[in-house]
Amino acid sequence: MKLGLALGYWGSQPANPLEVVLQAERLGYETAWFAEAYGSDVFSPLCWFGSQTSRIKLGTAVMQISARTPACTAMTMATIDHLCQGRLVLGIGVSGPQVVEGWYGQPFPKPLARTREYVEIVRKILRRDAPVENPGPHYPLPYPGGTGLGKPLKLIVHPLRRHIPIYLGAEGPKNVAMATEIADGWLPIFVSPYRFGIYDESLRGMKEGFEIATVVPVNLSDDVAQALMPIKANLGFYIGGMGAPSENFHLNLIVRMGFEEPARKVQELFLAGKRAEAISAVPDELADEISLVGPRERIRERLAAWRETPVTQIIVGSQDPAVLRLLAEELL
Questions:
Q1: CA distances, 34 to each of 7, 88, 133, 146, 275 (Å)
Q2: Does the pLDDT of residue 64 top 70, yes or no?
Q3: Is the bond leading into 142 cis (omega within 30 degrees of zero)?
């Protein structure tokens, strides 16, 4: 099993994030991943860290497709891949209606169809087989209207790689199934190795070489209950606040995992402004299953459950040097 490093959003890193990335590279970690929501962008840190490293792959987890047209994304991919000598991994996702429509001013409906079309155009641009045309309906090229002067174009720069890996950040069953069809990998969230069977049907079409890379929060501590608190806080925020009351993909996932009653209680408390109570209402069992917390021996024992899953890469949700070393010793 490979290891990745989760650095989250810019601003959530330690005082010297570069040293953490360099340590991960020295330890043999496969990838370092950066995120975006409606704050820092996902590509700028990649360029900075890429300029200071030589081997570790640079991943976006995840780039929101509504933030950029397919052509913009393909141009950025080709540029960064040249700069880092073929180390880019593009993770993409649709985000949610609050961010897509409220922040980017783009329509959210039909996210699966939009994702499929987006990936098709990006692949077509990077292959450079011909000037790019796409009949739509979500990203028509050339644009039907306007001046009428638009014409099909071909990427001027020759990509270092005609095929740059694309992973989908997906939660719903249909979206996960689509990832196995059109992408090189899948970036799940809140994975329990004890409940991985909820994805069996969605992963039925998984092809050889398909990657599953999931963030696993890791907290090395002798006090398990205390170590679970940051995981519960993160779950409480996603279940309660990262989505509309009537449409929250994270809540839906936790329900499919078997925690419907407590999950809906968490959302109710969070939306009522009772955030501390919402975090307390997150089941310890859920927080414990999706993470690796406790003393070294406990973490070593619980890694056994991950080895039984189809997960190919654990993206370590920690910047603690001791944690990075421990996981490297156990899995590399």
A1: 5, 12, 31, 36, 26
A2: yes
A3: yes
User: Cα(308)–Cα(314) distance, rounded to whole angstroms?
Assistant: 13
Ranges of H-type helices in the chain: 17-27, 43-52, 70-83, 97-102, 111-127, 173-182, 224-241, 249-256, 260-271, 275-281, 284-289, 296-307, 321-331
Q: Compute how many other C-beta atoms are within 10 angstroms of the C-beta atom of residue 98.
A: 16
Q: What is the pLDDT of residue 147?
A: 96
Token pair listed for 328? 């490297």
Residue type, 292: L
Mean pLDDT of all residues in the chain? Answer: 96
Set out the domains of the chain in order of their start, with CATH numbers: 2-220+295-331 (3.20.20.30)
Query: Whose CA is closest to 306, among 194, 190, 189, 169?
Result: 194
Cα(3)–Cα(327) distance, rounded to whole angstroms?
8
Cβ atoms 94, 100 nearer than 8 A:
yes
Q: What is the pLDDT of residue 14?
A: 63
